[in-house]
Amino acid sequence: MARGMDMQALMRQAQKMQSDMARAQEELKETVVEGVAGGGMVKVKANCANDILGIEINPEVVDPEDVEMLQDLILAAINDAMAKAGEIAGNRMGAVTGGMKLPF
């Protein structure tokens, strides 16, 4: 009978972890980070669930003769935002899972 109780405790622990993970994922959707490039000429806001929420481009950086530079700045700002979001998400989910590597 002791095995049955251990299994029940394990199931309760798994349910709590699942609930904590769902809560953490909701919090990540609400946590906003900002990526910047070009000394702040391009800014990207994203949440920690990897959704891009907005892009701000300073008109001074818009040069019709050099569209490639603007594209590079936008990509750099997006990558900066995603790196920040990924770090926060990793820390929060790691706290919930106790450092276990889970497939999500």
From TrEMBL:
It is found in: Cytoplasm, Nucleoid. Residues 7-34 form a coiled coil. InterPro entries: YbaB-like_sf (IPR036894), YbaB/EbfC (IPR004401). GO terms for molecular function: DNA binding. Keywords: Coiled coil, Cytoplasm, DNA-binding. Its main location: cytoplasm. One of its GO terms (cellular component) is cytosol. Belongs to the YbaB/EbfC family. Binds to DNA and alters its conformation. May be involved in regulation of gene expression, nucleoid organization and DNA protection. Homodimer. HAMAP family: DNA_YbaB_EbfC. This is Nucleoid-associated protein IAB00_04750. It comes from Candidatus Avidehalobacter gallistercoris.
